[in-house]
Amino acid sequence: MDFILDNQQELVKKTAREFANDILRPGVIERDEKSLFPKNEIIQMGELGFMGMMVPEKFGGSGLDTLSYCLALEEISKVDASVGVIMSVNNSLVCNLLYKYGNEYQKNTFLPKLASGKSLGSFSLSEPQSGSDASNMKTFARRESSDFVINGTKNWVTNGTSSDIVILLCLTKKNVGYKGISAFIVEKTFDGLTTGNKENKLGIRGSDTCEIYFDNCKVPSKNLIETEGEGFRIALDILNGGRIGIATQALGIAQESLDRSIQYAKEREQFGKSISDFGIIQSKIANMAIKNEASRLLIHKAAILKDKGLEFSKEASMAKHFSSEAAMSNALECVQIFGGYGYVKETGVERLIRDAKITQIYEGTSEIQEKVIAKSLLKGD
Amino acid sequence: MMKIAVLIKQVPGSESPLSIADSNVWLDEEKVAYIMNESDNYALEEALLLKEGTQDCEVVVVSLGPERVKKIIREGLAKGADRGMHLNINSNDVTDPLSIAKIFADALKSENFDLILSGLQSDDLGHGQTGIIIGELLKMSTGSLAVSTKLDGDQIAIKQEMEAGFFQNVRMSLPASITIQSGLNTPRYPSLKGIMGAKKKEIKTLDIDSSDQKLKISKLYLPSSSNEITMIDGSPDQIVENLVKVFKSEIKI
What we know:
- The complex is a heterodimer of chains A (381) and B (253).
- Helix content of chain A is 52%, strand content 15%.
- Chain A has 381 residues and is an alpha+beta fold.
- Chain A folds into three domains: 7-119, Acyl-CoA dehydrogenase/oxidase, N-terminal domain (Butyryl-Coa Dehydrogenase, subunit A, domain 1), CATH 1.10.540; 122-229, Butyryl-CoA Dehydrogenase, subunit A, domain 2; 232-378, Butyryl-CoA Dehydrogenase, subunit A, domain 3.
- Chain B contains six helices and eleven strands.
- Chain B is an alpha/beta fold and 253 residues long.
- In chain B, 34% of the residues are buried.
- Chain B has helices spanning 38-52, 70-79, 97-109, 130-137, 192-198, 236-251; strands spanning 2-7, 10-12, 34-36, 57-65, 83-88, 115-119, 141-152, 155-161, 167-173, 176-180, 203-207.
- The interface between A and B is medium-sized, with 18 and 14 residues.
């Protein structure tokens, strides 16, 4: 077992770190405050190859492995977790799904633009009444000669407003539960598709989340991914990879919490000495670092299993669960170390708490991760 | 074909801890975080921009130092240089600019470069002479502190930074060796495809004989610090009076 990064991986990490510090850091507080989508930043990331990292070069991607993706995503998320989730959704969910399950027509038509950041993707599974229980979805695609006609409402769509392509999960057959779910590629320009207002969120306010309404929206059948009824199997498989992405986003937040805490603890003096000389602060910092290191090992293990084509769903769930809990707890500790200075926006650490919270919720709540892990352990073989 | 060499040096990063090794002649390299010398990064970008504006142009990144310098050579290749040359030597064996320039001149001679670009000085030793001496040794035109460059047939026009805010426009015939001032362009990030592609590019290693050296570092040390600060208190008039006394009696101006 080798924990040493090779030259190429180090350069990927360094490039992401420099890009994040030079380009993303200057506007991060303003984007959070005003809920501004980082449009120009995402275009630049696309040009550098960050939006389709694991897609092979022949489809416009960078042809890197999942581990390199995690190294880059951690650096990006450290500085701006909103950019982290935009990158994670486009890479882990949209590009991965099209590359793994799309046919040649679909890959050739949609992947080159998505993988190079020329267009942006979103992934739409949730509905107002159907969150963790996906089988309860209502949006329905009715076959009409060579098209499908879609009606219904989806919500919590990350990149919902800014995306050009939506990977849509909806029913093509009613009353058969999961077996009725199919996956479609829907272009935002199709008639009958409208998006709702941007949600006014607690955190990751730079990313845009909205509802999407389908009102007799006609989608050609060549945009159906695989065959009818395969959508839920595809979504679950792809969400496993997505969990590695969200775990990494959480790790970025947790690491930023630690780095900012160390920096501040060394600067801040009370009772005539640096607060980093106090055992109680040292204990906080040590515990934050332990959590980050453990998160990183879980994430990298899941990523390596995925790259080797092995089963990684339990490991991805463990990584996401542990990292998102670590992000929340480290962000709270960071603000605690900053005291009053942490509670105001200017220092930029209160945002870490708000950004961390979502990582325990989306792409499977912590409770759902526990269910996945327990099911895998108890299945009895 | 236009051939451009860019000389890049690996130096300790400004945020790296700098502790002196037990030998007392160099830093403890184990603890140093190395980066590409700042002005060399601008020289590399300038070369890549010239390449993009020229048909049939090759950019070669060249670095002198131990095995670790391959890291910045690969970084140069990832950004778009075509191949690399590693002049393999122990890091602190040769520290004087004439010996360094002779090593480069010997290694580069047979390549017949049209243009050699380097940063104006290194952030560690800071002699600021290497690029110029190489040019002289190879009988090239030389220019220093360039803040812009423009290729024009078999000539290159540069704008040079002078003292006191003056600039000078100079036109010289190729081949030329030019040192580049920081800030004249915006160095690019390597693209991920560039990073992937760098693995396939050639890095030629030449082992360098370092026995001929003109200068040796005998001792590297931190200046000793002292706490001899006298605070002069009082009204402005008293402070001035006391300060003048100190000037006269103690510092003896």
